[in-house]
Amino acid sequence: MFKGIITPIVTPFNRDEAQSINYEATKEHIERLLAAGVQGIFALGSNGEFHVLTHAEKTAFVEKVVGFVDHRVPVFAGAGACSTRETVSLAQEMEQSGADALSVVAPYFIKPTDAELVEHYQTIAASVNLPVILYNIPKNTGYSLPPAVVEQLAQVENIVGIKDSSGDLELLQAYTDIAAANDFQVLIGSDSKISVAYQMGAKAAIAGTSNLLPKTLVALDQALAAGEYETANQLQGSIDVLRKALKLGTVPAILKRSIELSGLAQVGPARKPVTEPNQQTDEEIVKMLEFYR
What we know:
Layout (H helix, E strand, L loop, with lengths): L3 E5 L14 H14 L3 E4 L11 H15 L5 E4 L5 H13 L4 E5 L8 H13 L5 E5 L1 H4 L5 H7 L5 E6 L4 H13 L3 E4 L5 H7 L3 E3 L7 H12 L3 H17 L7 H9 L17 H13 L2
């Protein structure tokens, strides 16, 4: 059973021509997050820019992250790709690299049938011995994983949960109903819905905002676990200041720049075609950061 705040870490890049991965900044960022009390590190999520990394970069990054974490918390690795073949290859290599669990985003660009989705995930799960978490993010894939598909996949031994970033409470309820009836777990991926998801039965959040605000998110998780709902509501609301600022640019440019301007780690820019924020946007980010000081 996964629990607590799991940070889907940004992938730090150098400001060189290749925008190569900055492993020194990666280690620094991970150490800060662990010191703040997060209970999982997730490499190659949406904020981790998995979509602009090569196969070799993905597997090398996961191997480095596993080494940096050194068994202190579980390491989740994003193995999703458009094809079943590529996903299986990534999943197997990430397992060999020491990841503790895999997250597999639904295939994007196309919309598979329910039967195709079931076969896709069954094939991936059968190719590894690690726990597999489904990843539902319709704003990026163009569709949601249907509850009927999730219910069928919940019967697969090592498909253990779903990360839901839909923001759809009706769909979230359907997923939590499936979890309640099976050995299965819902991990909330919409940072604005952490409180309500916990009240529905979620025990963990994969929260992108914890890259910048790990102590706030950890405190929110602890308040919810203790039933301190007034405190939880205050903490949940405070995240909205950052969430509003994130809309100033293309994901994850603003989050990465916020981490740098706060002095936490030199995580670099997002990879092109995403460009760095201009001076005016930097000024807006600084204003946002002042709220959390």
